Amino acid sequence: MGYVENIGDINKDGISEIIVVPIWFIGCWGRMEFYTFKEGKWHNFGEAECHICNEDDYRYIERITKLSKNKIRVIEDAWDSEAGDRVKKPKILRLNFKKQASNSK
Fold first, then answer.
1. Distance (Å, rounded) from C-alpha 98 to C-alpha 82?
2. Residue 102 pLDDT > 50, yes or no?
3. For tag attachment on the chain, is the N or C end more exposed, with fewer CB atoms within 10 Å?
4. How do residues 75-93 score in pLDDT, each as one tens digit?
5. Is residue 45 part of a domain?
6. What is the dihedral of CA 68, 77, 55, 70, to 10 degrees?
């Protein structure tokens, strides 16, 4: 499975959103997956790359800033091939879950 962490009730619907970091990595590179709970199931609303090689890298919650009821900024790790090193860059994720239409007539 990996790591699961509560990131708070971003969209103020009474249910906290979560972050999942699967245990599977390539070297030190992995990903953070973001989920919201709607209509009885968890829905992924985004992902961000992460570099996890030391204890400081495991502070996922510190990478997240709430911008609005339906938007967060997450600090993602990326590889800068020109510099030959990893860099941190902001990524905006939106909780744009829309209720699915009913097929009943």
1. 40
2. no
3. C
4. 999 999 998 998 999 999 9
5. yes
6. 10
Q: Which domain holds residue 7?
A: 2-94
Other beta carbons within 10 Å of 58: 14
DSSP state for residue 16 in the 8-state scheme = -
Tokens of 64: 């997240």
In terms of pLDDT, which residue wins out, 3 or 6? 6
Counted domains in the chain: 1
Compare 17 and 56 and report the one with higher pLDDT: 17
Whether residue 100 is contained in a domain is answered as no
16 within domain boundaries: yes
Tell whether 105 is covered by a domain: no
Instruction: Please return the burial class of 11, using the count of CB atoms within 10 Å of its CB with bins 0-12, 13-18 and 19+.
Output: buried
